[in-house]
Write a structure and sequence with these properties.
This protein is an alpha+beta fold. It has helices at residues 6-11, 13-31, 35-48, 51-54; strands at residues 60-63, 76-83, 86-91, 99-102, 109-113.
Length: 125
């Protein structure tokens, strides 16, 4: 069994490290967590493919084969916009209008196409 995360498989471990560090700093700043705790939370979340940490506009998330809900029939979603715990998504290869879904609905999906446009606003020299 591989311990590589979905992020490692999609972008490689070196780029994954550049994603993890800003997320750790964000938890330290926003939630006032010690660095070791923030690092553990982020690493465990990235390994699990946690949408709370990873979901960003431009990504494609595919319905897991074992998923039963919340969106039967929607095989893949493209994230158009994220607003904390709400997403605006388009159905891949579909002419239906954009949908609003809760971020937690992505638990039934897995990340299949990487995109990361988040600025590292918490960078410290």
């Amino acid at each position: 069994m591989s311990t590589l995360s979905i992020v490692d498989r999609l972008i490689g471990p070196e780029c994954a490290a550049r994603v993890i560090q800003p997320l750790v700093r964000e938890l330290m700043t926003d939630d006032l967590l010690p660095e070791t705790v923030a690092y553990r939370i982020v690493c465990e979340g990235v390994l699990a493919g946690d949408p709370w940490l990873l979901a960003e506009p431009g990504q494609v998330w595919a319905l897991r084969p074992d998923a039963t809900s919340p969106a039967p029939g929607h095989a893949a979603l493209v994230i158009v916009h994220r607003d904390t715990d709400q997403l605006t998504v388009e159905l891949e290869d579909d002419d239906e209008p954009r949908l609003q879904i809760p971020l937690c609905a992505l638990a039934a999906y897995e990340l299949t196409s990487w995109c990361w446009m988040r600025d590292d606003t918490h960078h410290t020299p």
